[in-house]
Design a protein that fits this description.
By secondary structure, the chain is an alpha/beta fold. The chain is built from 11 helices and 7 strands.
Length: 264
Amino acid sequence: METRKIEIPLMADLFAKGEKPEYLFWVGCAGAFDDRYKKVVRAFAKILTHLKISFAVLGKEEICNGDPARRAGNEMLYQMQALQVIEIFKMYEIKKILTICPHCFNIFKNEYPDLGGNYVVVNYLQFLNSHIEDGSLKIDSASLDNISVTYHDPCYLGRANDIYDEPRNILRKITGNLVEMNRNKSYSLCCGAGGAQMFKEAEKGEKEVYMERTEDALKTGAKIIATACPFCMTMLTDGLKYKNKELEIRNLDIAELIAQSIDL
């Protein structure tokens, strides 16, 4: 299928013309640098364009928001990065932020207010679900042809921010065969990368956390593991490769599933 090119507006370009988009789409480090997660960014950007949403990205002006530094215990670096981001937001008079990374969502929503950064922060699953519910985003309910899908709850969406229903509502619209892992919602097992674990070597133990969680997913018999976090995607993809299952079971982000269902 031919790839459709879309123009992603830059905040600086719009601001120079006197335009103020409704949303800043915060791409995040993974969306900017990880080749696999760039596909998720493209899928969500195509959906935003399809919905004619007023949005822009910071592009090269976007820096890390400090979440990994804080999770790793470097409070000084976190505050330096966060205050720099807040100044950029002030410059562009940003009020609403759309995020695809749960870690970015959590830190903007729950921790930036302590430093004076107060914004309306919306996770992309909340955003997509609301547009599906109001009818503005119509998806093909038969797009997956009843293929079985299981969903892995990211810690920073689920336990940290109580976002459990939105992803499941979306997936039920896409497929009639959503199967839950035994450990789900508030009992979901971490993928093993949270709390800055993504950026350090594994500690001694009998089994990697991501292997345990991959086994949870494989027990469901699902053909697609739906994820909603760059860290979770990386860890579960590694788990599937370790189990030699990457050719028969796909790990796809929910934005990718929606983009497929509406043929974007």
